Every structure is written in C-alpha cells, then in structure tokens.
Amino acid sequence: MTQRIFISRKLPDEVIAPLKENYDVKMWDKEDRPIPYEELVKEVKDADALLTTLSENVNKELLTAGNKLKIVANMAVGYDNVDISSAKDLGITITNTPDVLTESTADLAFALLLATARRMIEASEYVKNGDWKSWSPLLLAGHDVHRKTIGIVGMGSIGKVVAKRATGFDMNILYYNRSRKQDAEDELGAKYVDFDELLAQSDFIVCLTPLTEETKDMFTREAFKKMKQTAVFVNASRGPVVNEKDLYDALVSGEIAGAGLDVFVNEPIDADHPLLKLKQVVAMPHIGSATGETRNKMMKLCVENIEAVLSNKKAITPVF
Ligand code: 8YV
Question: Are 125 and 175 within one domain?
Fold first, then answer.
C-alpha cells in the first residue's frame, strides 16, 4: 500500500512534487492559519511520515496517535516542540534541519545587533513619518559596535558564525557555553568566561542557546542587573530563555539600553505586549532562517529525510 505523508504547513508545490511521485501526500493548505491541534491528531492517525514545523506541538499524545509513524521531519534546527523521549520510546525517527540555516540565522542575529545599537528601525520610521526636518548633533545617536565586546551565550554552530561576523567589526569576543569550544578560541580568538563575567563585561549579549530545562528563564532580572547600563541584549534562540517581564523592567528602569528580539515566549506575540511599546526594542517575527535560499534548503532536507526513512534508509539528519 502506498505510504502516506502528512505536511502540517502549506509548502510550495515544487518542493513536494518529488514526494508525490511515490507517496500519497496530504498537506494543510491554509496559509493564513495553523492546523488546529485536534485536526493534526486526526491526520497523523494513518500517516507514515509527518513534516512539521516549530509551531506544532509534537507531544506524546500526537506521537502515540500516529501509530504508523516512522518519521517526524521538523523544519527547524531546534526541536523543543517535540517530545524526544516519547519518540525514542515509540521508535519514531525525528529529524531536524541543522547546518543549512546556520549562516542566515547568524546574519539575522548580527543584523538585530546592528539595528538595535544604531536605532535603525526607529530612524527609518522617523524618515518615513516625515519627522526629519532638521539636523542636530545627537539626533538618533546610537552605540558603536566596532571594537566593542560581544558576549555570545551558546557557542554552537550559529554562535561561531556570529563570532566570525564580529571579527569583521574588530570586536572582542567572549562566550559562555556548557563546554569549551577550542576551535572558536583558536580560530576566532573567542575567550571562554563564566555567565556572570560575560554579563558584566559585554556591550552586546547575544543569546543563541537551545531551549532546554537548564536554559529556560536563564535571563532574569538578576542577570539583566549584572549587565552594563549601555548593554544591548539580542535574542535569536528561543523566547522562553528570557523572562519577558524582567526584560521589560530592566529596559524601562534603564538597567540595559536596548533589546533586539527575534523570538518571544508566545509566538506570534500579542501586538499589545508591553515590550513592543518600547522604542529601544527591535522586534522581528522569528525570521532567523527566513531567506528564500535557506528556507528552500530546509524544506528540501525535510523531504530527503522522509524519502530516506520511508525507503528504509538511514535519516540524513536524525536528532538522536
Ligand atoms: C524555524 C528556528 O526553523 O530552526 C529553528 O530552530 O527557530 C527557525 O529557523 C522556523 O521558525 C520554522 O519552524
């Protein structure tokens, strides 16, 4: 019997065309809204493979409902939306999309750093709103980036590329990670420090760590208080590593100078969220990996992982 694949997001026809040649493919086709959870549970019941994204909660119930499931291909490098231990118990392969998104996500993290430090979004609005009537020496004056200290929290592959970008700005590079990264030290001159020292010494704190039990709520008021008052905080990893109320309080009380955020505790974030009211916050809708080139590679990798597992070959990028 033809094996069945369910795709939880509308993907371009050319991406799924190769799958359609050999498999029975069904796809959620509404671009403007995600598949309701109950519907996903129903769809997964007779699926051999599921192609999913970060927005879907691939929990034990869903994995158990998919009693024919051989693979869940998650279109993201992170897989905190997947219950990995249940997948292991049930013998379901989970794949992610590492490497292909590293450079684009690092670009976005660095762009957020620059945009926040140089007040670029505020400045663009200023011009577009017709407020640019005259010149004054400190009009929209931001903070220098070159030759400053960047502190990278999470020196994985994306962290290393951000560090590489930072060398082009002659920055002093500090990092904090679960383990030492000798290659980042040797090749990029990054210096390993403990978390508190990184907070105290950095002008830019860039968070790129995965979301785990240990990293959840890593950035609390206590952490922000340890930063310089001129510090800019950038988060391109996962929202829940930050206590958003604490970040808001740190920003309004002037404990830090600004924040560039690509991720939030609840996504999509409510437009009325207090953080979005602050001019020193640059907010992006989780677009770290969102370039045409990279998203195409991510989709292709998901397709290839599914093809491999459904034809009894090894997955290309399994997470365990
Ligand atoms: C997601 C991400 O891929 O890869 C990750 O972990 O956070 C993003 O690149 C994107 O939101 C689609 O799920």
Answer: yes
| 143 in catalytic set | no
Task: Tell me which of 9, 165, 286, 295 is the catalytic residue.
Answer: 286
Residues 73 and 115 in one domain: no
| Residue 272 CA, ligand 1 centroid: distance in Å | 24
Per the annotation, the verdict on 304 as an active-site residue is no
Question: Which pLDDT belongs to residue 1?
Answer: 87
Q: What residue numbers bound the domain in which 89 lies?
A: 4-98+292-310
Tell me whether residue 238 is one of the annotated catalytic residues: yes
Is the predicted pLDDT of residue 286 greater than 90, yes or no?
yes
Tell me which residues have their CB closer than 6 angstroms to ligand 1. 53-54, 75-78, 101, 286, 288-289
* 98-146 confidence digits (pLDDT tens): 999 999 999 999 999 999 999 999 999 999 999 999 999 999 999 999 9
Cβ count near 53 (within 10 Å): 18
Q: Does pTM surpass 0.95?
A: yes
Question: Is 320 within a domain?
Answer: no
Identify the CATH number of the domain in which residue 79 sits.
Answer: 3.40.50.720
Cα dihedral 142, 144, 145, 149 sign: negative
Omega before 268 cis (within 30°)?
yes
SS3 per-residue string spanning 229-262: CCCEEEECCCHHHECHHHHHHHHHCCCCCEEEEC
- How far apart are the C-alpha atoms of 302 and 89, rounded to whole Å? 22
- 305 falls within a domain: yes
Is the same domain home to 55 and 111? no
Q: Which residue has the tokens 């024919």?
A: 68
